[in-house]
Amino acid sequence: MTGMTGLTVRKRLLGWLADLALILYFVFALFPIAWMVILSLKPANQLFSTYFSFTPTLGSYRTVLGDSEGIPFVRFFVNSLVVSVGAVVLSLVVGLPAAYASARWRFKGSENLMFTLLSFRFAPELTVIIPLFVLYQKLGLFDTYVGMIWVLQLVTLPLIVWIMRSYFADLTPELEQAALLDGYTRKQAFFKVALPLVKPGIAAVSLLAFIFAWNNFVFPLILTSNEAQTVTVGALSFLGGDRPKYNLTAAAALVSVVPPLLLALTIQRYLVRGLSFGAVKS
Amino acid sequence: MSSSRTAIGLRGIRKTYGKTTALDGLELDVKEGEFFCLLGPSGAGKTTTLKTVAGLEQPDSGTVELDGKDMRGVEPYDRGVAMCFESYALYPHRSAYDNLASPLRSPRHRLPAADARDRIAAIAELLGIGGLLDRPVGQLSNGQRQRVALGRVLVRPARAFLLDEPLSHLDAKLRQQMRAELKAIGAVQNTTTLYVTHDSVEALALGDRIGVIRDGRIVQTGTREEIWYQPCDTEVARAFGRPRINLLPGAVAADGGFRSADGKVELPISAAASPGTEVLIGVRPRDLALGEGPGHELTGTVYVTEVLGRSVEVTVRLGEQHVSLVAPRADTAGLRPDDPVRLTVRPENLLLFEADRPERPGRRIGR
Q1: For the whole model, what pTM was predicted?
Q2: Where are the transmembrane segments (chain A) (predicted)?
């Protein structure tokens, strides 16, 4: 043992310390989720017990997904899906041509336009929410799918335009020029050459935008009441009433995490493909 | 073959990118059916010229004419020209076959699928890529990609072919072979071709006429003989021929002859320049002969010899200058450094230039 130098001992010790630090961070980061899982499994009468033992039950999930307690959680869930998917699809339809145009051509005010679009991402939503509320009330967009999809463009459109712009900028314009000389119009060159080549980017950015749209809280909170309400707001309904039902809220929150979680797992593959795309291009 | 009708005409084309001037009043006439080589160093504006003809770049001023028609406002797909990009610009998500088929599936050059297949097979065979058609272009080597890119141009009918260094990425042997075959291809024989290269050998081998481009301007246009025997200035003279042309600095003497700067070389020429004018006298290495012969005689000493195969490049010291010459191997047997040698040059092979100036190379002022 005397052969072992102080250096290797220290190295090993540092390794252990690093592991310990990682475990601590892991516990810290995952604790809220673990807590929610425990909370969602507790029966209502043991909710506030301070000791750790309880009789686990799936009753909360049954209540939440069974639309009991007068709260249409399944509808909130469907609303979230419709609104988020709708917002992403609309952003793609509008945003892909915009991204392409801004990547390929400098036109008057193009940079200002792009910056304005970006500013939607970093301006707090709360700054515009009251005028939006008034407008929506007057236009009849309040508590509608159309209204929600529209307002979520503030979230999804800048993301899609800015990320797709860099994908298009990475493509050499000579590919589309070759298509023009092959006898295709500019529109055909876009659809047949440029668009297929940024597919990995479209997949990655769509998933990302979906998650942002899904997670949005402020817009549905103010601009919907019942018909178009989404899970992020709907899950809180369980806290109202005679006494807060934390177990139901926890179950609802965990259920609403599922779609973004599934997508986040798929996004990894696409993100890697999307990012390595530029490297393998000749 | 080539008639006198102008197929591609560029009139006073100016194109700037920010502060850099790519084309500076470029004038160019390519005749119907002609194979025209545009030669110049990188950055001279060759690719910009092609893209301007194709309509991919809009000139700041000047006009592009195709078959005598002003092309202002005519979209690239309506100009009927085909272009081979130096970067290949192959569609990376498609197979080699689909790349070749792209023009034949477009609304403007559509062929029935069966005819397209035959044409593609014929062109692929010609270019030696017949066995690669199923592969995605990402799996092809650079040389193979370049041939696919060339094929995509040749497969379709066109008013003109615009080829941007289409052989540059082939290995030496294949390049030589393709160079020989390119002009024999029927489509190329029948179609006006504007061919861009930085390789003077390629330009001399291929071009019916050659245009030398420099700093966004055509400095000289002519047949290979004109470019070779009557270069407009020292830089054009230097651009063609390896080893390079010998240029001896000197001045016009009182008797109108040439006297080198060190006074060691005198040549009786009839210069159209006043005595005292600083000049360069040019003679190509293959026009200098070892030993006795007709023409002017020069004496010097051997500096170094290098065997090139069947011939030998001999560098000879003439006073303070070095000149190279290429001689058959038999004539150079036994030559050692510092051996005295006699050189002869025929008077008609001497070229006389003004001295180079910082702002421009010296112009030719006499034979």
Answers
A1: 0.82
A2: 20-41, 76-101, 113-136, 148-168, 189-214, 246-267
